[in-house]
Amino acid sequence: RAKADGRNTHRFFAPEMAERLKAFHDLKLGLHDALRRDEFELHYQPLIATDDGHIRGFEALIRWRHPRLGLISPADFIPVAEETGLIAPIGEWALRTACREAMRWPDGIGISVNVSSVQFRNKGLVEAVRNALADTGLAPGRLELEITESVLLQDDDTNLNTLRELRALGTRIVMDDFGTGYSALGYLCRFPFDKVKIDRSFVADLPRCTGSTAVVQAVAGMGRNLGIVITAEGVEDRAQLDAVRRLGCHEAQGFHLSRPIPAAEVPALISRLQDGRLQDGRLQGGRL
Ligand code: C2E
Ligand code: MG
Ligand code: MG
Ligand code: MG
């Protein structure tokens, strides 16, 4: 049988595979101590109003500064954290840290924190959000929680109740990566989201692709009718920024405006922009 399977049989014994398994195992072990060793940090990426270029807020994006491997992206360790149950304490740390750091910014500037679907289903989420707000003193109206469609995949009342409880605290609820899940439009009827972020896969094809243009325009129109703020993610150039503005998105976020930056650089970015105003269609001279 091994012969019949040919090369595939050997795949499981390939040294790269063993290395990858070991890397995963190391990641798991390291992640366990990362909180205690204070190895996580949040970077912040601005959300810009498309009409006047003001900074509406920042999205907190977690990174792991690994002592040997350097900066590790959330895509590499959040799934491991979800699998091991570490997502709950890491998520709490992110909430608390984001709220605390946002307290140093002007009152009008919001803070968005990502909540994983695993973290969402944990009983402690509402309590964690309430505590983060109480301990840091952040006004609840400045906090946005970003969830993905997968949270609503199981059509049960528990998740809807959690969303309502979070809303009752005064925070805003955002649907992240809109358009990448299933029956996306149905979810918007089931729960009144405050904001929808259109996934960057649609923005990437603008302005040329007629399909993406139609989708973005339709979502923006729906946002207008339902009173939902529409944000375009992954705006990478001027043509895309012009397109999402023209198609009716309220906010834009992406490398063209600013990459995610360390917390220490946020106040300078805000003041350099004089009240957070976008100059000349760009946040930072030349590069962005
Ligand atoms: P997300 O919430 O959809 O965040 C947007 C991601 O797109 C970020 O990647 C950001 O750096 C990237 N991005 C922003 N502008 C552009 C652009 O113009 N072009 C491209 N190609 N990418 C852009 P990042 O920071 O690697 O985060 C990846 C994902 O990890 C996030 O996706 C979010 O789902 C998750 N994540 C990040 N921080 C946290 C956290 O604190 N908790 C949880 N549970 N998940 C987090
Ligand atoms: Mg997000
Ligand atoms: Mg997103
Ligand atoms: Mg995403």
Please specify the SSE layout and strand pairing:
Layout: H1 2-5, H2 7-11, H3 15-34, E1 40-49, E2 55-66, E3 70-72, H4 74-84, H5 87-102, E4 110-114, H6 117-121, H7 125-136, E5 143-148, H8 157-168, E6 172-178, H9 184-190, E7 195-198, H10 200-203, H11 210-226, E8 229-232, H12 238-246, E9 251-252, E10 261-262, H13 266-272
Parallel strand pairs: 2-4, 4-5, 5-6, 6-7, 7-8, 8-9
Antiparallel strand pairs: 1-2, 1-9, 1-10, 2-3
Helix pairs in contact: 3-4, 5-7
The structure holds ligand C2E and magnesium ion (3 copies).
Domain EAL: 24-274
Organism: Azospirillum ramasamyi
Protein name: GGDEF domain-containing protein
What can you tell me about this protein's structure?
Strands 1-2-4-5-6-7-8-9 form an 8-stranded mixed beta barrel, surrounded by 4 helices. Helix content is 45%, strand content 19%. A hairpin with a 5-residue loop joins strand 1 and strand 2 (55-66). By secondary structure, it is α/β, with parallel strands linked by helices. One magnesium ion is lined by residues 59, 114, 146, 176. Residues 24-274 form the EAL domain. This is GGDEF domain-containing protein.
